[in-house]
């Protein structure tokens, strides 16, 4: 079993509905969703579908044996109590060949939120195995990314972090040219408009390779933003 801390828009929201429809699965209910039929999305969304519509804040990790899921929940709730909700504007981006929704501009609040999740909850994370580290390194990492991998179990944290909601596998130029207009049409009602980052969501992978499911959503409660120390 693994856990992850994600941003996931709440089910009544339009963003949640559009993202779940695009991927073909609702991570809150576990149910399948009808995908846009303008193109065949089943294969190109297979990998992000397993993780559910989300933006990663703290990537998947196994718990240290001495901790329980309830202890992790309590820590996430405490962190959420100290963080303030804020708004971002989304745009469609190509990130390393992946199609994703990402902030239209830089956001210090987004970066601070992710950094707090990585740092403050890391005591619960079981160290990555030699095999897991080797798999990450096989993709090619910069020296800084490799340091992050050793210390935090993931290369793309802190200054290497980029908030994004993945919509596809890696696409070739011709595929992207085909898929992008469909995505622009599907997400038109939420692009270039403010959305509220209002909660930390604890996801769980019940067993290796299983779809990630929403375990619990923790609203951000602070009245004043608390910057990471």
Explain this structure.
There is one protein chain. By secondary structure, the chain is an alpha+beta fold. The protein has a single domain, classed as Alpha-Beta Complex (Cyclic Phosphodiesterase, Chain: A). Helices cover 33% and strands 23% of the residues. The strands form two sheets. Strands 2-1-7-8 form a four-stranded antiparallel beta sheet. It has a four-stranded antiparallel beta sheet with strand order 5-4-3-6. Strand 7 and strand 8 form a beta hairpin.
Oligomeric composition of the shown chains: single chain
Overall 3D geometry? Answer: globular
Uncertain ranges = 225-229
The whole-angstrom Rg is 17 Å
Relevant terms:
33% helix, disordered C terminus, Cyclic Phosphodiesterase, Chain: A, globular, 229 residues, 7 helices, four-stranded antiparallel beta sheet, alpha+beta
How are the SSEs placed, and which strands pair?
Elements: E1 2-7, H1 14-23, H2 46-51, E2 55-61, H3 69-81, E3 86-95, E4 98-103, H4 108-120, H5 130-138, H6 143-152, E5 165-170, H7 173-186, E6 194-197, E7 199-205, E8 213-219
Structure, briefly:
By secondary structure, the chain is α+β, with helices and mostly antiparallel strands. It has helices at residues 14-23, 46-51, 69-81, 108-120, 130-138, 143-152, 173-186, and strands spanning 2-7, 55-61, 86-95, 98-103, 165-170, 194-197, 199-205, 213-219.
